[in-house]
Here is the input.
Amino acid sequence: MRLERNLGFDLQRATEAAALRSARWMGRGDKIEADQAAVDAMRFALETMDMDGIVVIGEGEKDEAPMLYIGEHVGNGNAPQVDIAVDPVEGTTLLAQGMPGAIAVVAAADRGSMFNPPGIVYMDKIAVGEQAKGCIDINAPVAENIANVARALNKDTDDITVVVLDRPRHADLIAQIRETGARIKHILHGDVAGSLMPSMAISPADILMGIGGAPESVISACAMKCTGGEIQCKLWPRNDAERQLAQKNGLDLNKVYTTDDLVSSDNVFFAATGITTGEFLKGVQYFGWGATTHSLVMRSASGTVRYIESRHRWDKLMRISGLPFDQR
Here is the structure.
């Protein structure tokens, strides 16, 4: 069944709500309260949506509610039936420390189409925009991938910018990238935002490489379905316990997961709202009368990418919402 209604606009309301509530905690040093504010607001918005949704990519477990936990039902139960991937605050540390790039993210796709590897926290990944689609191979040497992407983008190797999470585990990867002459853009947090950079119309980077969150890989794949980009991933167990768990669940650690493996549906909706100003989304700005938000809404079926700036008036918003948007 095709999802004829553009759920992206409803998802945008959820990311806006999460951003409006959590941005109150910018720079206050409390990741838990910031994340809690976003979760409460996002759940409130999702529960009102006309859909039958199940959270496939989420946080926490049921007995640790009120986190949006895997298996939780959201929406009013009406059609369409969809999988939901959420990250109420991608970059909680960024938000808590008042740093750039925190966003609220939600994606939806046909029921049963999203991949969720149980017990595996990390994946090795590589992602590019549409122009370089088909030119990457996660099993190939770093230099080969960079050269192929440079050729696809009609750039010299030293024109290429690679996004890499700033982590000790990436020391060897960084050394290999530097040997090619390519530039490196370090990010402190935010896999999803990092994977989106190569797909933006005015791109701050050309490739994402490195090990990051497994749930974020699925959300990134949803974004790739909308932008036409490509992501490839491999499971990256942190220890023997996770390797044994992967084997127990029949997961092949050598398998390359493509965009279609991570989300098989072609009916995908993606929404993100800036919490703190970053590369492609402005953060929440508060005023005495309300606030402004900046959001990204995408749909795979049409390939439409929308940037939406919204004004929110407390005097009217508070009449129709039980959430205290006007206070921390």
Q: What stands out?
A: The longest strand covers residues 81-90. Residues 31-47 form the longest helix (17 residues). Residues 235 and 253 are 6 Å apart (CA to CA). The mean pLDDT is 92.
